Structure formats: structure tokens, C-alpha cells
Task: inverse folding
């Protein structure tokens, strides 16, 4: 019989890394079975409640409060653990005090490292705008990782950046590569001639990783945040980033990637791109490309395609356009459950699979009717972006903290209606140091249930700190089917789950299409004339054999609606 | 001083061809300056009013009534013309009584030509379902050209067709090629190995014409009508048509074209296509292709691309993927006014130009915010489908009757804000016998105004009855710039009207991207760790030079919102 205890520390702000480490430290204490340490937001509380870690007594908590919960073998163990809390909380930054002196404010930091042209901001959303503003006023460019920043704040920050000739990447900017260095989440890639601007974190990561895998390199990768291309923000960062890449000597080809922009913003962005003098690959995921190419613009279908096009343009790889006919396997019964850390990867999965697994719901669906209203609860075929704003308040992004996903894998596996779980694992700097260490056991446990398949898309490079080969090996050993290219994963899921092609039951008669044709025309007389004319060797070199007849039709009852109704009644009776 | 006279013939139903001919016959009478002959629908009355041909006295008219209007040089000429009306109305079918015996009902027609497996129905919308039902009950397939048919009627008709193993193409089906014979509007094309199914009339015409132009041929082209892929209709015709093409021995490659289908319908259609054993080119205009190819499915960007893909697959032409950089000209000031007869051509123009001419309004815009609410009145950049249901009640399609468009060209040319008028001319059986004869003078007259350009897209083949070469020659002689491929026309319009690329005014500093990088981190500490790790030759073969500093940040005022507000106030004062 286990014991659950909660402890509330009012106003004790902790950043999410600290919370994750605190949870780990508590779970390492003797007699502790499970622990939770969260800022007391509604989502976090409901997640605690779901694990049975929340007590009613912990009422009246505010989002600023730290809530610690333990499930212990005994009352004594629980008490002992909670008594250690003050010590654990003091032991910040990975368990030991940092030796070097650390500034407590941005102003001091800038004096200490005046060469720093970039400030990375990842404090909780409600504090983020204030910190970013301070950085801009100190004449620094900002990489704003924080999410849950108000739209009005974003607009103000970007206006200020424009005035001062600075760049604000974000808010909710997951990744960037500046001068060869990855900021936030980034894969380690060769330096090279391809520069990228993206409103999408994992999208940029997937493309840069693909470029590296095929021998290409990246000059810069600049993020904009997901709302930059809205009417309100007007593409401020995207336009500034694009102009930076145009001026950047190392950049020979530019890749522009985002969800569909507002029309006025697309127009401004494409105008600038079209006049920039460098080839540009445009990938507006979810928006139909207007053409294969327009002037110097080349439109890509998807992430993989964007990488291929860019590589072809710097002549590192050829653009391989081929027709293939893959065999179809017997489909797996059951639902797809996609549990994604990467928002753009989730988005691309929805776009690629939505036409096949119908309905396919998602919290990132562009079609409002396909919206998954409660991303905490799966429904039919669905794809959940676990990094969405609403799920990350007061907790770390799922690319760092896998707890939410591990628990969800367990839950989905327990649902007998689920046939396939689809996961992404994004490697690189900033991401979890060893995702396979946690995922592999969870995958093995889940696959203990018959009739379940787990597919993992791994985005990473051979230079990434996590050791790509070992990650793949351990995931495969656990029983997962692993793919390195997004489209490979989508193809596999489609082949496994999409309804078997049907070709029966539709009964029109093929013989009715055979020549020679005979037809009756009723209505516009010129259509009859055209039929007859086609049989005339004088006007037609084709001259197929046609027999046609025109009906001299007049509306029944002279077109009188009341009389027509009476006639219909007489006929049917 | 001219005289206007109206005459109402209550309940005198006339089909639209008769009306068009009646108008022509009246205008040929001595002393008649202008004439109108319309079924008295609201749209038609307002068009008459616009030309100053409607008198107040013609009140109380119903849509079933025939309204004849003349503007004459004198009272006597007007009276004389209207007195001829009964004679003119009797002279049906092109001015002389047909010599052959013509059945007055479908049942008689079927007895007379029992070999006819197809019935072409183009009676006015409110009668159309009744005629189509009769044809199905007589065990005949239906080509249903009529528009303004109720959705519930369409569903009923298609259910009946399914039960009886028949095909209903339409309602609002503009074109088909069955057994080598064009039904409705159709270009004359070589017979060949490419079979098409399309929810789009001019889309099918543009693709079949392009296939023919490049040496390919068409086995069958089956229309479905624009609503077939809605949830309500469920793709009934498209599925049946697809299964016909699968069974059709002459068809080696299938092209499937439509506007974006409902997700459940797309799923059914693509499932069938994927299992059909033949290569299929899919072109869902306005919907992002999920990939370049999925199994045997190949996704096209646009009409031209669909034709190219199909041709490549039957090895008639190579699929040419190339990068080009076209020079940019000085843009023309002024608005685009697209006046289209072809709905799908209008749609593709919107999709191709919408990102560049912003806002671009249209009565066929997929984006509700870009909807042109009153297609009778232009607004900014806009594209009008003059063949849309709401504009064709009681009058012929603009591919046959050009009156509406001729008048509109005159009006747009008179607007000094208009810089470019874009027109389509669709040739082939069923279409106007000589569109250039009317359009060329209208174009010459419009171009009398300085600063106006007129671009014409001509869709047709060298086999079409109108003589393609002569059409193009006369349109060009009138001063129009003529294109034969849709994308050629869109490219030209884009180059002429899209805002000049701007590249100034965005002020972020290129030097800030240069290596070595120095950065300050504030928030998630692991991002700092990642920065430092990238500078470590032990963990990174890239090892760029990075200098980084982490700020030991705590929320101001312990995160207390009220205190933070006070601090902000103090600071700003």
C-alpha cells in the first residue's frame, strides 16, 4: 500500500530544467516510487491527477506555485523525501554549484561579454517579452525560445527590433544555426552554401539534417516563430532574415519554409525572394504550390523535397524524379496514434496521411473540422503535437522532457483499438541527451501487447552529440521500425493502415464507353450539332462514328410549377 | 433620340440558344440599335437595366416569362420589330424548320435510337433532374450539362444511377470524351492511352488539349460535375468513372483532376486509385500534394503539370524538370481584371496569382476572405468566373454566348484603374463557332485607352472546328498578347503586375551572423551547455568557436504580477 504526499511551495519559481532534475532526484531517494514536480498550472495538475499523484488538499494553488508530489512505500519514506526538498532546491544547475561567476542580470552579462550579439531567451512565457525587450534595448539580437508569449507582445518586440536593426527569432523559436553554431535545438551539420529561414523548428531541423546526410552544408538557419507570417506580425522576422541571407556571402541558395502565410505576407515575402538574385526554395507546408517554379523560386512539396531541391541547386546531389509502383501489403487493423515532439513533423504527417486515414484528427490540423479539441485524449486516428503551447506551460518541451510522452505511449498501448504508434525522435544540441534510453524500454513494454506496431522517425546527423547510430540501434532492438526520412515514415504508415484499395461494387458498364457512340441530346441544340459535326470527314480529321438524335423538348405543363407537381402526382399514383 | 420598348411573353419558355438567336435576329432588323431577349430572372433583368433596355412598365414578370427588349431609331422601327416576334419565335432551331422528324419526348427518342447508351441533358436547371431521372429509368447513362440543379436532386440521381449500373456525369458537367466523341464542350484530340476523370470542365479541356498538342492521345475523358466530391454526393460519379477507366483496355494512364475533395471522399478515391494497377496522375487544384508520388499515384501541381506527367508515363514526352531564372520587367500600374468563361481556368489563375497580387478577389476563391461577393462588380485585383451558376440562370454559358463578357470588357477598359484584362478563349465542339470574330473588335476598342494590356489564354487544338491558328492570329492582330499554356499566361500576368521586388528597409545586420559566435543565454540552462559543447573538439568534429555566458535569472519580484507591475511603473517614470 503506497502513500501519496503533496507539498506546495508558494511563489517558488523554478525553471523547467530544475523541475525535471528535481523530479529525478526525488525518484532516486530510498522508498520513493514516483515523483512529480511542476508549476501548478491547470494542465500540469490534471497530468498529476491522472497519475494519481494529486491530493485534494493541494487546493488554492496558483500557477506561480511549485507543487511537489511523491508516491512512497511508506509514510516515513515520503516524509524523509519531502524534508530533503529545501536542499534539493538549493542544489541548482545539475547538482553542483557552478564554479564560475554567473551574472544575475542581462545588463551585467552584456558588460561581461560585450562581444555577444545574440541573447537566447527561454524563461517562462509571461516573463519572456520583458527579457527580450531588455536585450533589444541593450542592442542585442534575440533568439526567443519561450512560448506562451502574447501576440501583442510579439508585435511590439518586432517593431522595436525593426527600429534598431535587430532580429527577433521567435517567440516559440525552436532552432537556429548562426555562424555555424546551433541555438536552442539544432542538429550538427556541415557548414555550406544553403541558408534557411523557417517558421518551423523541426521542419528546419529535418531539412538541415537531410542536407548534411547527403553531403551538403548549411550557411545559416534562421527561425522566425510560428506566428511571424500572420497578418498581425506581417512577416517582420522572415523579411529581415531573408534580407540577411541575401546579404550573406556564404549563402548561395535560400530555403524558405513555413505553414501557409497570410496572403498579404506571402505576397511581400515572395516579392522579396523573387527579386533577391539567389535561387530560393519555397516550402509552404499545407498550401498548394502555385507552380514547380516561378522565376528564381522553386516550390517544394514537403520537407524532404525542399532538401532535395536545395541540394540539386548547389549541385551536391541530383534531383531525382522517378515513378515507382510500390507493392501494397495487407493493412493492420486499428488506429494510428502519432505522438510528436516536433510540431512541423506532426504537421507534415497530418498533411501526408490525412487523405488516407479519414478522419485523421490533430491539434495541428489546418482544417478546423479535423481539429482534435482535447489533445490530452486521443480519438480515432490522431496525431498529437506534444510540444504545442497549451501542453508546455510550466514544463519543458517534449524534446527535452519525455515524461508526458512516455506516459502517453503506455496509455495508447493499453487501448486495444490502437494499431500503430508513430513517434519522432529529434536529436541534436538542446535536445534530450539520450532519448533512446527512456524510449526503448517504453517501446518494449508497449509491444508486449499483440497487434501493435511502433514506428519511429529519427531526425539527426552523424555529428549529433547523442550518437545517431546507437539511438537507431537501441530503438530497433526494442522492436520499433525506424525511419530517417519523414516521407519514408509516412509511406510506411500509409501502407500499414490505409484502407485496402477497393475496386468492386461500382457498377457502371465499360461497354458503354466503346466506339461507335450513339447519343440522344435534349436541351441546347448546338450540342447536337457538335455531335453530328464530329462524324463529318470534311470538318474532322478524326471523324469518329457518331449517331445522334435531338429531342424537341418543351417544359412539361408549359413550365408551370403547380401543373408540373400535379402531373408528377398523377404519374406516381 | 432612340426609343426603348419591352415586350413580355408570359410563360413562353425558350431555351438559351433560341434566345441568343432571337437577339441576333432582332438586331438584324432595320432601325434596331440593340436588342435583348432573356428569361426574366433577376440577374438577367439587372443586366438589361444596366444596358438601359429595361422599362419600369415590365413589372410583375416571373422567371418563366420571356422578356424582349429593343432600342430602335424610331417608334415605327421598334413596333415593326416587335410585330415580327411571333414569326421569329416560331423559326426555331437556327432559322429554318428541321427537315428530319424529331421526337418530342425522351421515351420516343430511345425507341427511335435504341443503340444510344448516352443522353445529353441541357434543359434549364429546374427541369433537368426530371429529364435525367427519366433517362436513367430508360436505362441510359446521362451527360448532365444543366447547372442550377439542387444538391438533393443530384444525390437522388446518383443513387439511382448506382443501383442501375449507370453513370451520371454532372450536373454542371461541361465536357466529356466518350469513345472518341466529345460531348458538350470538348476539344478534338487524338485517341490514345490517357484516360481522364475530372470534376472540372475547362480543366479537362486544358489537359486534353495539352496532351494532343504534344503528340499524346486521349482514351476517355469523363466529367463528374463540381459537387461530386462533396460529402453529400460522396464521389459517386468519380468512383464509377475511375472504375470504368480501370476496366477500359485502351486506358494505360489515368488522370484524376478536381478541386480539393472532402477528406472522406479523397480517402475513398485515392484508395481506389492506389489499388487500380495503372499509374494515376492526381491533380487536386488548391490542395497541397502530400508528396510527389505515393505508390502508383503521381501528384501534379497544376493543369500543365498534370498533362506533362501523363505524357511522360506513356512515354510520349519527357518530364522536363528545370530551374530557370526569368528576368523581371518594370511592372504595369493598375489592377488585374480576369474575365473567365472557364471555371477551372479561373480557379487556377487565382491559385497561381493569389500569392502575388494581394488581395486578389474572386467568385471562385477557396479562401472565404478573398471571396468577390458581387461578381457583377469588380473590386481591386479580381478574377470572375462568368460561367458560375449564379450568372448563368436563363442564359447560355459564356463559352457559347459572349455578350456578358463583351459588355464587361468595355466596362473594365473604361475604368482607369485597370491595367490588365485577362481572358480565356476555350475552343472545341460545343463552344462558340468563332469567338475571335466578336472578341477581336472588343479588344481593339478597349486598347484604344492608354496604359491597358489584354492577355488571352487560348485553349484548343489544331483539330478544333474554330481553326485555332486563325483565332490566335486575329486576337493578336487586335492587340492582345496570346498564350496557349495556362502557366505561360499566369507567368506573364505575374511579371507585368506583381509589385516590384523590394529589398531595402529591412535593417538587421549581416555582420551579426558571422563566426565566431558569442551569445548570452537566459532561461533553460541546457541551451547554455549545448552552446559550450559545440566548442569542444572532443564532442564536435565541427567545433566552431563559441563564447557563451549564462545568466542566473530569477523572475523579478519573485514572479509576483502585482509587484512586477509596480516595478515597471517605477522604471518607466
Result:
Amino acid at each position: 500500500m503506497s502513500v501519496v504526499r503533496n507539498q506546495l511551495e508558494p511563489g517558488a519559481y523554478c525553471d523547467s530544467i530544475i523541475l525535471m532534475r528535481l523530479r529525478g532526484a526525488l525518484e532516486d531517494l530510498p522508498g520513493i516510487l514516483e515523483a512529480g514536480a511542476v508549476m501548478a498550472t491547470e494542465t500540469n495538475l490534471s497530468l498529476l491527477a491522472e497519475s494519481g499523484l494529486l491530493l485534494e488538499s493541494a487546493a488554492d494553488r496558483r500557477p506561480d506555485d511549485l507543487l511537489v508530489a511523491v508516491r512512497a512505500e511508506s509514510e516515513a519514506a515520503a516524509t524523509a523525501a519531502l524534508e530533503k526538498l529545501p536542499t534539493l532546491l538549493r542544489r541548482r544547475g545539475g547538482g553542483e554549484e557552478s564554479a564560475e561567476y554567473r551574472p544575475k542580470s542581462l545588463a551585467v552579462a552584456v558588460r561581461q561579454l560585450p562581444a555577444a550579439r545574440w541573447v537566447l531567451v527561454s524563461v517562462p512565457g509571461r516573463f519572456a517579452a520583458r527579457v527580450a525587450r531588455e536585450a533589444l534595448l541593450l542592442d542585442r539580437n534575440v533568439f526567443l525560445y519561450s512560448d506562451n508569449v502574447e501576440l501583442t507582445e510579439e508585435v511590439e518586440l518586432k517593431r522595436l527590433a525593426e527600429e534598431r536593426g535587430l532580429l527577433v527569432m521567435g517567440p516559440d523559436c525552436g532552432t537556429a544555426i548562426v555562424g555555424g553554431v546551433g541555438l536552442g535545438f539544432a542538429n550538427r551539420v556541415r557548414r555550406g552554401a544553403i541558408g534557411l529561414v523557417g517558421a518551423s523548428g523541426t521542419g528546419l531541423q529535418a531539412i538541415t539534417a537531410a542536407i548534411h546526410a547527403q553531403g551538403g552544408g548549411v550557411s545559416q538557419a534562421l527561425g522566425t516563430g510560428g506566428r511571424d507570417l500572420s497578418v498581425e506580425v506581417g512577416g517582420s522576422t522572415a523579411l529581415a532574415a531573408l534580407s540577411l541571407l541575401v546579404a550573406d556571402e556564404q549563402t548561395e541558395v535560400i530555403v524558405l519554409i513555413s505553414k501557409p502565410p497570410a496572403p498579404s505576407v506571402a505576397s511581400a515575402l515572395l516579392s522579396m525572394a523573387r527579386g533577391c538574385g539567389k535561387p530560393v526554395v519555397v516550402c509552404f507546408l499545407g498550401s498548394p504550390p502555385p507552380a514547380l517554379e516561378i522565376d528564381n523560386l522553386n516550390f517544394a512539396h514537403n520537407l524532404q523535397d525542399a532538401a532535395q531541391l536545395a541540394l540539386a541547386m548547389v549541385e551536391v546531389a541530383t534531383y531525382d524524379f522517378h515513378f515507382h509502383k510500390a507493392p501494397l501489403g495487407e493493412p493492420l487493423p486499428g488506429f494510428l496514434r502519432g505522438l510528436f515532439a516536433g510540431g512541423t513533423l506532426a504537421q507534415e504527417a497530418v498533411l501526408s496521411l490525412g487523405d488516407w486515414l479519414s478522419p485523421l484528427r490533430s491539434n495541428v490540423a489546418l482544417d478546423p473540422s479535423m481539429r482534435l479539441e482535447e489533445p490530452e485524449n486521443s480519438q480515432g486516428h490522431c496525431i498529437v503535437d506534444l510540444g504545442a503551447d497549451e501542453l508546455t506551460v510550466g514544463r519543458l518541451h517534449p524534446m527535452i522532457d519525455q515524461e508526458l510522452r512516455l506516459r502517453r505511449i503506455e496509455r495508447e498501448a493499453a487501448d486495444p483499438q490502437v494499431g500503430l504508434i508513430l513517434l519522432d525522435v529529434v536529436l541534436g544540441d538542446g535536445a534530450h541527451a539520450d532519448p533512446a534510453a527512456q524510449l526503448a524500454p517504453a517501446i518494449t513494454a508497449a509491444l508486449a501487447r499483440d497487434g501493435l506496431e511502433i514506428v519511429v522517425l529519427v531526425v539527426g546527423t552523424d555529428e549529433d552529440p547523442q550518437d545517431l547510430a546507437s539511438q537507431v540501434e537501441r530503438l530497433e532492438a526494442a522492436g520499433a521500425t525506424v525511419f530517417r526520412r519523414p516521407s519514408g515514415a509516412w509511406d510506411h504508415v500509409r501502407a500499414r493502415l490505409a484502407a485496402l484499395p477497393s475496386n468492386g461494387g461500382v457498377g457502371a458498364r465499360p461497354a458503354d464507353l466503346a466506339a461507335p457512340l450513339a447519343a440522344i441530346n435534349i436541351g441546347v441544340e448546338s450540342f447536337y450539332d457538335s455531335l453530328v459535326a464530329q462524324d463529318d470527314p470534311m470538318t474532322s480529321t478524326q471523324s469518329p462514328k457518331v449517331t445522334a438524335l435531338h429531342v424537341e423538348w418543351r417544359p412539361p405543363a408549359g413550365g408551370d410549377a403547380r401543373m408540373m407537381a400535379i402531373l408528377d402526382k398523377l404519374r406516381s399514383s
Remarks:
- The first strand of chain A starts at residue 3 and ends at 9.
